[in-house]
């Protein structure tokens, strides 16, 4: 149990499901509430069904906003329109939440405001953060997304109309500017990897002394009872968004390289494009002799995809974490990933091979070597992968680390100076 039960105003995505950001939020709320913290959750949307174990938790309260944005309306019929209007709707509803947060703070003061997923939430009232600390735990930062959108503009033009690139670049440029300004309000930045932390410090000028590195949680029991399936040829799974900065062109090149080297393997690409970036056209160049693109799958099917796979390939050029990597390890699947993938940090290199972004030959070699290792010691390799996931990403482990960091912050403010780089909030990786 925590040494101090904190009262927290929580801002972020609505919890729900097993995977992606909503699944992470579910695990974080459940874990922190289980540690005794009392959390008021503020959501811009007008209401969604909640997981039963959260709705029934006495330490959690849910306050809904006014946004009734929906899919397949006149304002959301295209992906780009949905991207733009969704941002606008959430922004307006977030502004309306400010007064509700301020009123509840007056009635019973919060110890801190915890903002997860997004950096630039407009729901945070200045009247509250002048008296209590603001903690931000972002999943990505727009400066990084924008950098790779621009760097890959030729790929974008091959896959999408040019006006999509122009409109997206304009929206991301504005968001990056807003994030650079609003991140400076944070007293503590909880970073999901150290490589991501370094990007935030570099791009937004945030003080490294006010950061802590704590990974995402993964619900391990999703993979506990899955029966391992053995397919021939072995399967290398590529799981995630088919969009900018994911290294999709490198995946195609890796498949061709493995075919040329006569490595017996099948590349299976699973995923969908994002609202503002669609690189699926690049996958038309996959060699059919050893590769396939099967489209997207529901989150409930992800465990089945993982247990039938032998290796996960994550070829990203920029990747703050990559939940798919953590889930693969939980399923006993070793990983080949670039050095930009945050989830491989601190993982035993017997089950993770790190390569440079864009190093196609290195990826192909790493896949061949990992396949050999699996042939020699399949049980030991898969057991080690799961053990590493449990050690690094178990929800109780992650939530305890976050709880400790929050308590340390509040205690430091109560006893020390209010400058941003205060004692007790020194940068560290947990």
Characterize the structure shown.
By secondary structure, the protein is α/β, with parallel strands linked by helices. The protein folds into 2 domains: 7-217 and 394-429, Glycogen Phosphorylase B (Rossmann fold, 3-Layer(aba) Sandwich); 220-393, Glycogen Phosphorylase B (Rossmann fold). The protein is 42% helix and 15% strand. It contains 14 helices and 14 strands. Strand 2 (38-45), helix 2 (52-55) and strand 3 (60-67) form a beta-alpha-beta unit. The model is unreliable at 418-426 (pLDDT under 50).
Question: What's the layout of helices and strands?
Answer:
Elements: E1 7-11, H1 20-34, E2 38-45, H2 52-55, E3 60-67, H3 79-107, E4 112-117, H4 126-129, E5 134-138, H5 142-151, H6 153-159, H7 162-182, E6 188-191, H8 194-204, E7 211-213, E8 235-239, H9 248-260, E9 266-270, E10 291-293, H10 302-307, E11 311-314, H11 323-330, E12 335-338, E13 352-355, H12 360-376, H13 378-393, H14 395-415, E14 428-429
Parallel strand pairs: 1-2, 1-4, 2-3, 4-5, 5-6, 6-7, 7-14, 8-9, 8-11, 9-10, 11-12, 12-13
Helix pairs in contact: 1-14, 5-7, 9-12, 11-13, 12-13
């Amino acid at each position: 149990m925590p040494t101090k039960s904190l009262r927290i105003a929580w801002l972020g995505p609505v919890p729900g499901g097993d995977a992606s950001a909503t699944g992470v939020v579910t695990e974080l709320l459940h874990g922190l509430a289980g540690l005794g913290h009392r959390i008021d959750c503020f959501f811009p949307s007008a209401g969604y069904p909640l997981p039963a174990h959260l709705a029934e938790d006495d330490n959690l309260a849910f306050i809904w906003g006014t946004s009734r944005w929906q899919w397949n309306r006149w304002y959301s019929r295209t992906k780009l329109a949905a991207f733009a209007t969704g941002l606008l709707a959430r922004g307006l509803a977030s502004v309306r939440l400010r007064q509700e947060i301020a009123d509840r703070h007056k009635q019973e003061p919060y110890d801190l405001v915890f903002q997860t997923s997004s950096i630039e939430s407009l729901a945070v009232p200045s009247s509250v953060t002048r008296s209590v600390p603001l903690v931000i735990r972002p999943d990505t930062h727009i400066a990084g997304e924008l950098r790779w959108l621009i760097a890959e503009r030729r790929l974008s033009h091959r896959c999408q109309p040019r006006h999509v690139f122009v409109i997206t670049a304009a929206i991301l440029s504005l968001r990056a500017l807003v994030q650079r300004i609003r991140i400076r309000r944070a007293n503590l930045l909880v970073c999901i990897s150290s490589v991501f932390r370094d990007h935030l410090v570099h791009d937004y000028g945030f003080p490294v002394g006010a950061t802590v590195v704590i990974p995402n949680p993964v619900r391990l029991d999703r993979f506990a009872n899955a029966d391992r399936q053995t397919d021939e040829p072995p399967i290398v799974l590529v799981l995630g968004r088919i969009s900018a900065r994911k290294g999709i062109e490198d995946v195609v090149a890796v498949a061709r390289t493995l075919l040329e080297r006569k490595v017996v393997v099948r590349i299976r690409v699973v995923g969908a494009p994002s609202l503002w970036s669609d690189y699926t056209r690049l996958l038309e160049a996959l060699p059919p002799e050893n590769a396939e693109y099967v489209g997207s799958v529901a989150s409930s099917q992800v465990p089945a995809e993982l247990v039938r796979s032998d290796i996960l390939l994550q070829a990203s050029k920029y990747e703050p974490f990559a939940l798919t990597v953590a889930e693969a390890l939980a399923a006993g699947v070793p990983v080949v990933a670039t050095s930009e993938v945050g989830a491989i940090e601190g993982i035993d290199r017997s089950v993770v091979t790190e390569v440079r972004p864009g190093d196609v030959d290195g990826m192909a070699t790493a896949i061949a070597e990992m396949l050999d290792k699996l042939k020699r010691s399949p049980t030991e390799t898969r057991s080690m992968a799961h053990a590493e996931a449990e050690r690094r990403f178990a929800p109780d482990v992650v939530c305890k680390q976050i709880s400790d960091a929050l308590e340390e912050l509040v205690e430091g403010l109560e006893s020390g100076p209010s400058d941003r780089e205060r004692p007790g909030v020194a940068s560290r990786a947990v």
